[in-house]
Design goal:
The chain has helices at residues 17-33, 68-71, 98-114, 129-137, and strands spanning 37-43, 46-61, 79-89, 121-125, 141-142, 149-153. The chain is α+β, with helices and mostly antiparallel strands. It has a single domain (17-153), classed as Gcn5-related N-acetyltransferase (GNAT) (Aminopeptidase, 3-Layer(aba) Sandwich), CATH 3.40.630.30. A hairpin with a 6-residue loop joins strand 5 and strand 6. The longest helix is centred in the first third of the chain and has 17 residues, at 17-33. It starts with 16 loop residues before the first helix and ends with a strand.
């Protein structure tokens, strides 16, 4: 988890200004206020340097937003989910598979939390078609009415 006193947020660059700006300016505040929890990936040999990060928070979804196959299995009222609001890896670790590692950590953490608190899926909002394809490669499904918003059933 992000430790504002330990981790070098200012030194992180992923190449997407909005994600860099979030980590530099807002992540510690949102983490402290319970708005989202920020998880960082670091190398044990250099624990101050952030290699990547993702955020998780609570969410809910209206059943009408899901695929027809998933709608058949669910109640007709909003149900709880997790939201991965941001995911980024450092620009100098491009090609090292850290995006996949971060994704795996987020899903694993949600599966563990799901054993304690009910939640149906992990939600994400893809920033572009490349990000959407990345999520789809791992089983995420686009919402019917918002194709850049996706979900991964955790069942």
């Amino acid at each position: 988890m992000l430790d504002a006193r330990l981790h070098d947020r200012a030194g992180f660059r992923c190449g997407v200004p909005a994600l860099d700006d979030y980590l530099h300016k807002y992540a510690a505040q949102q983490n402290a206020k319970g708005i989202s929890t920020v998880f960082v990936l670091v190398n044990d040999a250099a624990p101050r340097k952030i290699l990547g990060f993702y955020t998780l928070s609570a969410a809910q979804v209206e059943v009408e937003q899901l695929s027809e196959a998933d709608r058949k299995k669910l109640p007709r009222y909003p149900f709880p989910c997790f939201r991965m609001g941001r995911l980024a890896r450092s620009i100098d670790s491009r090609g090292a598979g850290l995006g996949e590692v971060l994704m795996g950590c987020a899903v694993d953490r949600c599966l563990h939390a799901r054993s304690l608190v009910g939640a149906y899926a992990l939600l994400v909002d893809a920033k572009d078609e490349k990000a959407k394809a990345f999520y789809e490669e791992y089983g995420f499904v686009a919402f019917g009415d918002a194709p850049m918003s996706l979900y991964l059933p955790l069942g």
